Amino acid sequence: MFKAFLIKYAEIGLKGKNRFLFENALRDRIQEALNPLGNFMVSKEQGRVFVECPEVYDYEETMGVLQKVFGISSICPVVVLDSSDWDDLTRGVGDYIEASYPDRHITFKVEAKRADKNYPRTSPEICADMGAYLLKRFPEMKVDVHEPDVRFTVEVRTKSYVYSINLPGLGGMPVGTNGKAMLLLSGGIDSPVAGYMIAKRGVSMAATYFHAPPYTSERAKQKVVDLAEKIAKYTGEIKLYVVNFTDIQLYIYDQCPHEELTIIMRRYMMKIAEKLAEKEGCLGLVTGESIGQVASQTMHSLAATNEVCTMPVYRPLIAFDKQDIVEIAEKIDTFETSIQPFEDCCTIFVAKHPVTKPNIKTIQHSERNLEEKIDAMLETAINTAECIHVGA
Ligand code: ATP
Ligand code: MG
Fold this sequence. Notes:
The protein has about 400 residues and is α/β, with parallel strands linked by helices. The protein has helices at about 20-35, 60-65, 85-100, 125-135, 190-200, 220-235, 245-255, 260-280, 300-305, 320-330, 335-340, 345-350, 360-365, 375-385; strands spanning about 5-10, 40-45, 50, 70-80, 105-115, 140-145, 150-155, 160-165, 165-170, 180-185, 205-210, 240-245, 285, 315, 385-390. Helix 5 packs parallel to helix 6, helix 7 (about 245-255) packs antiparallel against helix 8 and helix 8 (about 260-280) crosses helix 9 (about 300-305). It binds adenosine-5'-triphosphate (ATP) and magnesium ion. Adenosine-5'-triphosphate binds next to helix 5, strand 11 and helix 12.
C-alpha cells in the first residue's frame, strides 16, 4: 500500500547556515542504509527527506532500517496516487482509510498542501470537500479540527501523496556530521552502549579491542566483532583494531605491584587507543566507564586512567546505573551478545584486592619498572594491530 516514506527531522533543522550539510548527510545515511534492501530513491525537499520505494519491498524490514538511522524524528508511510483527478483522489484516500483503520470510530481532520497552484481546488477547498466525502463514506468518523485522533494529510503535486501515520525515529544527528571518535570496545555490556550513544550525536566510530591470547580465546574476540557488527547497524562502518595486549600485560604483571595491575593496564590501553585514534583522525576516545561501577572506575581510578591521554575522553555512561545501561543494551540488541560468558583480558590478570584509590604518583613510580621495554612493546602492539572492517 505504501509506496514512499516521508522522513521528518527535528534537531538538524536548527543548524542555521550549515543546515544543508546535515540534510545531505541524513539523505546519504538513509540511502546507504536502504541500498542493501533494494532500489530505493532518497531525496531531500523542503525541510524533510523523501524515500521512494521500489515496486516490491518489505515494509517491516524497511521500517526496521529507517528506525536505526540517527537524525530522524519521525517516519510517515505515504500512499502515492498516480492521478490527482478529484474522483481518484477522494477514492484513493477513502480506500486508504478503509484498509488502514478497521475501527473507524475516530475523529479526524484533513490537511491539504498544494504544490500545483493550477489545481482546480484551493487547499481549504480540498480540506472541506475531502472532509465531506469522508463523512459520507464513513458515517462513524467525526471531524475535530482542534484535537483529532488522526490527521490525514493530502499533498497534491503531479501525483498525490496521502499520509496519516507518524512512527518515531531514533532522534539524534546523522552519523558523520560531527567528526570521529575511537571507542574502546570490550566484550562487556557497557562499551557498545557508550559507542551507540556518542554515534547518536553524529559522530562516526572506529574501535579498539585489547585481546590477550591465549588467555582470551578466539571466541572472546569473535564476540567483540559481533558487538561491533550490532552497533554498526546504527553507526555505519566501523574499523575495528584488535591489539595484541598479552606481552604488555605479562610485563606489567612481572614488574608492578599486583593491586595496581588493573589501573596500570588501563593506562596503557588508553595510550595505545589514543595513538590509534590519532592515526584514524579521531578527535576523542569513548569508554563505557561509569563512576563507582568497579574498582577501576572510582573517581580516583578514573583520574589515574585519564591522566595519560591528552585527547578528550568521552564517557557517556558516567552517571548511569547498571540497570539503565542494560535497558539500552537490550533496546539496541547488544545485551544477549554481551552476556556470553567469555573471558576478558581485564579479569584474567585481576588482583584479589585491587586499589580503589590509586595515587597517581605511586602509579607513576611503579611504572618506572617498565621503562626498559615498554616503549618498544607499545610500538609493536600498535604496529601489529589487526584491522577488521565491520559493517562495510
Ligand atoms: P564493559 O561492559 O564495557 O566491558 P566493564 O564494566 O567491564 O565495561 P572495565 O572492564 O573496567 O568495565 O572497562 C571499562 C572500559 O574500558 C570499558 O567500558 C571499555 O571502554 C574499556 N575496556 C575494558 N576492557 C577493554 C578491552 N579488552 N578492549 C577494549 N576496551 C576495553
Ligand atoms: Mg569489560
